[in-house]
Write a structure and sequence with these properties.
This protein is an alpha/beta fold. It has helices at 10-22, 33-40, 59-68, 84-92, 105-119, 152-163, 171-178, 189-201; strands at 2-6, 26-30, 47-51, 74-79, 97-100, 127-129, 132-135, 140-143, 146-148, 208-210, 214-216. Strands 2-1-3-4-5 form a five-stranded parallel beta sheet, with helices on both faces. It has a four-stranded antiparallel beta sheet with strand order 6-7-8-9, with helices on one face. Strands 10-11 form a two-stranded antiparallel sheet. Strand 10 (208-210) and strand 11 (214-216) form a beta hairpin. Residues 124-217 bind DNA.
Length: 217
Protein backbone atom coordinates (compact mmCIF):
# COMPACT_ATOMS: atom_id res chain seq x y z
CA UNK A 1 0.00 0.00 0.00
CA UNK A 2 1.31 3.48 -0.92
CA UNK A 3 0.58 6.18 1.66
CA UNK A 4 1.22 9.93 1.64
CA UNK A 5 1.55 11.75 4.97
CA UNK A 6 0.71 15.48 4.79
CA UNK A 7 1.55 17.02 8.16
CA UNK A 8 3.35 20.28 9.00
CA UNK A 9 4.52 19.08 12.44
CA UNK A 10 7.69 17.46 11.16
CA UNK A 11 8.45 15.37 14.24
CA UNK A 12 4.93 13.93 14.20
CA UNK A 13 4.97 13.39 10.43
CA UNK A 14 8.29 11.57 10.51
CA UNK A 15 7.23 9.46 13.50
CA UNK A 16 4.03 8.40 11.71
CA UNK A 17 5.99 7.56 8.58
CA UNK A 18 8.54 5.48 10.49
CA UNK A 19 5.79 3.58 12.28
CA UNK A 20 3.91 2.85 9.04
CA UNK A 21 7.07 1.62 7.36
CA UNK A 22 7.44 -0.82 10.25
CA UNK A 23 3.98 -2.04 9.18
CA UNK A 24 5.41 -2.77 5.70
CA UNK A 25 3.73 0.20 4.01
CA UNK A 26 5.42 2.42 1.42
CA UNK A 27 5.28 5.97 2.80
CA UNK A 28 6.06 9.43 1.41
CA UNK A 29 5.97 12.58 3.54
CA UNK A 30 5.32 16.25 2.72
CA UNK A 31 4.99 19.12 5.17
CA UNK A 32 2.61 21.62 3.55
CA UNK A 33 -0.41 21.79 1.28
CA UNK A 34 1.45 23.05 -1.77
CA UNK A 35 3.81 20.05 -1.67
CA UNK A 36 0.80 17.77 -1.28
CA UNK A 37 -0.83 19.13 -4.44
CA UNK A 38 2.41 18.79 -6.39
CA UNK A 39 3.06 15.23 -5.21
CA UNK A 40 -0.47 13.99 -5.88
CA UNK A 41 -0.40 15.46 -9.39
CA UNK A 42 1.95 12.71 -10.56
CA UNK A 43 1.60 9.89 -7.99
CA UNK A 44 -1.43 7.73 -7.30
CA UNK A 45 -1.63 6.92 -3.59
CA UNK A 46 -3.91 4.40 -1.92
CA UNK A 47 -4.38 6.52 1.22
CA UNK A 48 -3.53 10.13 2.07
CA UNK A 49 -3.25 11.09 5.75
CA UNK A 50 -4.05 14.80 5.58
CA UNK A 51 -3.67 17.29 8.41
CA UNK A 52 -6.41 19.89 8.19
CA UNK A 53 -4.44 22.90 9.46
CA UNK A 54 -1.64 23.18 6.88
CA UNK A 55 0.55 26.11 5.78
CA UNK A 56 0.63 27.48 2.19
CA UNK A 57 -2.53 25.63 1.17
CA UNK A 58 -5.10 24.70 3.82
CA UNK A 59 -5.97 21.04 4.24
CA UNK A 60 -9.58 21.76 3.28
CA UNK A 61 -8.42 23.16 -0.06
CA UNK A 62 -6.15 20.17 -0.64
CA UNK A 63 -9.04 17.82 0.07
CA UNK A 64 -11.36 19.76 -2.23
CA UNK A 65 -8.78 19.76 -5.02
CA UNK A 66 -8.24 16.00 -4.73
CA UNK A 67 -11.98 15.42 -4.90
CA UNK A 68 -12.36 17.70 -7.94
CA UNK A 69 -9.52 15.85 -9.72
CA UNK A 70 -11.04 12.49 -8.78
CA UNK A 71 -7.72 11.37 -7.32
CA UNK A 72 -8.05 7.66 -6.51
CA UNK A 73 -6.67 7.92 -2.95
CA UNK A 74 -8.83 7.58 0.13
CA UNK A 75 -8.35 10.55 2.46
CA UNK A 76 -7.96 10.29 6.24
CA UNK A 77 -8.13 13.80 7.67
CA UNK A 78 -6.39 14.68 10.95
CA UNK A 79 -7.32 17.62 13.16
CA UNK A 80 -6.74 18.94 16.65
CA UNK A 81 -10.31 20.25 16.71
CA UNK A 82 -12.74 18.37 18.92
CA UNK A 83 -15.81 20.08 17.44
CA UNK A 84 -18.05 17.56 15.67
CA UNK A 85 -19.19 20.27 13.27
CA UNK A 86 -15.63 20.65 11.95
CA UNK A 87 -15.38 16.92 11.41
CA UNK A 88 -18.63 16.95 9.45
CA UNK A 89 -17.31 19.84 7.36
CA UNK A 90 -14.16 17.89 6.55
CA UNK A 91 -16.11 14.83 5.47
CA UNK A 92 -18.36 16.97 3.29
CA UNK A 93 -15.29 18.21 1.40
CA UNK A 94 -14.46 14.70 0.26
CA UNK A 95 -12.54 13.12 3.14
CA UNK A 96 -13.30 9.43 3.68
CA UNK A 97 -12.50 9.31 7.39
CA UNK A 98 -11.61 11.64 10.24
CA UNK A 99 -9.27 11.13 13.20
CA UNK A 100 -8.87 13.76 15.95
CA UNK A 101 -5.52 14.49 17.59
CA UNK A 102 -4.13 13.12 19.82
CA UNK A 103 -4.71 9.61 18.51
CA UNK A 104 -3.51 6.10 19.28
CA UNK A 105 -1.12 4.89 16.59
CA UNK A 106 -2.77 1.46 16.42
CA UNK A 107 -6.08 3.09 15.53
CA UNK A 108 -4.40 5.15 12.80
CA UNK A 109 -2.93 1.99 11.26
CA UNK A 110 -6.29 0.21 11.42
CA UNK A 111 -8.07 3.12 9.73
CA UNK A 112 -5.42 3.37 7.00
CA UNK A 113 -5.69 -0.36 6.27
CA UNK A 114 -9.49 -0.15 6.19
CA UNK A 115 -9.33 2.74 3.72
CA UNK A 116 -6.74 0.89 1.65
CA UNK A 117 -9.12 -2.05 1.30
CA UNK A 118 -11.79 0.31 0.03
CA UNK A 119 -9.44 1.83 -2.58
CA UNK A 120 -8.72 -1.55 -4.20
CA UNK A 121 -10.93 -4.29 -5.64
CA UNK A 122 -12.30 -6.53 -2.87
CA UNK A 123 -9.97 -9.39 -1.93
CA UNK A 124 -10.32 -12.13 0.67
CA UNK A 125 -9.00 -11.25 4.15
CA UNK A 126 -6.50 -14.11 3.76
CA UNK A 127 -4.77 -14.33 0.36
CA UNK A 128 -4.09 -17.82 -0.97
CA UNK A 129 -2.76 -19.26 -4.22
CA UNK A 130 -0.62 -22.24 -5.28
CA UNK A 131 -0.21 -23.42 -1.69
CA UNK A 132 0.94 -19.98 -0.49
CA UNK A 133 -1.22 -18.48 2.24
CA UNK A 134 -0.70 -14.86 3.39
CA UNK A 135 -2.59 -13.28 6.28
CA UNK A 136 -2.22 -9.46 6.10
CA UNK A 137 -3.69 -8.94 9.57
CA UNK A 138 -1.46 -11.44 11.40
CA UNK A 139 1.51 -10.72 9.10
CA UNK A 140 2.11 -14.42 8.50
CA UNK A 141 2.95 -16.46 5.41
CA UNK A 142 2.70 -20.24 5.01
CA UNK A 143 3.67 -22.51 2.11
CA UNK A 144 1.83 -25.84 2.23
CA UNK A 145 1.39 -25.37 5.98
CA UNK A 146 5.04 -24.41 6.61
CA UNK A 147 5.66 -21.01 8.22
CA UNK A 148 7.82 -18.74 6.03
CA UNK A 149 9.65 -15.87 7.71
CA UNK A 150 9.87 -12.84 5.41
CA UNK A 151 11.27 -9.34 5.68
CA UNK A 152 8.80 -6.44 5.42
CA UNK A 153 9.65 -5.82 1.76
CA UNK A 154 9.44 -9.51 0.84
CA UNK A 155 6.05 -9.64 2.53
CA UNK A 156 4.85 -6.56 0.61
CA UNK A 157 6.03 -7.96 -2.73
CA UNK A 158 4.37 -11.31 -2.10
CA UNK A 159 1.16 -9.57 -1.05
CA UNK A 160 1.08 -7.62 -4.33
CA UNK A 161 1.59 -10.81 -6.34
CA UNK A 162 -1.22 -12.56 -4.47
CA UNK A 163 -3.56 -9.59 -4.85
CA UNK A 164 -3.04 -9.74 -8.62
CA UNK A 165 -4.76 -13.16 -8.55
CA UNK A 166 -2.56 -14.66 -11.25
CA UNK A 167 -2.07 -11.46 -13.21
CA UNK A 168 1.33 -10.06 -14.15
CA UNK A 169 2.76 -7.40 -11.82
CA UNK A 170 5.45 -5.17 -13.31
CA UNK A 171 8.68 -4.31 -11.50
CA UNK A 172 7.67 -0.64 -11.78
CA UNK A 173 4.41 -1.30 -9.95
CA UNK A 174 6.22 -3.25 -7.24
CA UNK A 175 8.64 -0.34 -6.80
CA UNK A 176 5.75 2.10 -6.52
CA UNK A 177 3.77 0.07 -3.99
CA UNK A 178 6.41 -1.62 -1.84
CA UNK A 179 9.10 1.07 -1.69
CA UNK A 180 9.01 4.86 -1.25
CA UNK A 181 10.16 7.79 -3.36
CA UNK A 182 13.73 7.71 -2.06
CA UNK A 183 14.57 4.52 -3.93
CA UNK A 184 16.69 4.84 -7.06
CA UNK A 185 14.35 3.85 -9.94
CA UNK A 186 17.28 2.08 -11.64
CA UNK A 187 17.94 -0.07 -8.58
CA UNK A 188 17.90 -3.87 -8.93
CA UNK A 189 16.19 -4.19 -5.56
CA UNK A 190 13.08 -5.84 -7.04
CA UNK A 191 15.16 -8.54 -8.73
CA UNK A 192 17.17 -9.15 -5.55
CA UNK A 193 14.05 -9.27 -3.37
CA UNK A 194 12.36 -11.65 -5.81
CA UNK A 195 15.38 -13.98 -5.69
CA UNK A 196 15.35 -14.20 -1.89
CA UNK A 197 11.56 -14.56 -1.86
CA UNK A 198 11.74 -17.48 -4.28
CA UNK A 199 14.45 -19.12 -2.19
CA UNK A 200 12.41 -18.81 1.01
CA UNK A 201 9.21 -20.12 -0.60
CA UNK A 202 11.12 -23.19 -1.78
CA UNK A 203 10.39 -25.77 -4.46
CA UNK A 204 8.51 -26.18 -6.66
CA UNK A 205 8.88 -22.55 -7.73
CA UNK A 206 5.62 -20.58 -7.75
CA UNK A 207 6.82 -17.15 -8.93
CA UNK A 208 7.18 -16.87 -12.69
CA UNK A 209 9.19 -14.21 -14.52
CA UNK A 210 7.30 -12.93 -17.56
CA UNK A 211 9.97 -11.53 -19.86
CA UNK A 212 9.53 -7.84 -20.55
CA UNK A 213 6.41 -7.62 -18.39
CA UNK A 214 7.09 -8.54 -14.77
CA UNK A 215 6.20 -11.38 -12.40
CA UNK A 216 3.21 -13.50 -11.52
CA UNK A 217 2.35 -16.09 -8.92
Amino acid sequence: MRVLIVEDERVLADAIAEGLREEALAVDVVYDGDEALERTSHTDYDVIVLDRDLPTVHGDDVCRDLADRRHPARILMLTAAADVTERVDGLSLGADDYLPKPFVFGELVARIRALGRRSSPPVPPVLERSGVRLDPHRRTVHRDGRLIRLTRKEFSVLEELLRAQGGVVSAELLLARAWDEHLDPFSNVVRVTMATLRRKLGEPAVIETVTGAGYRL
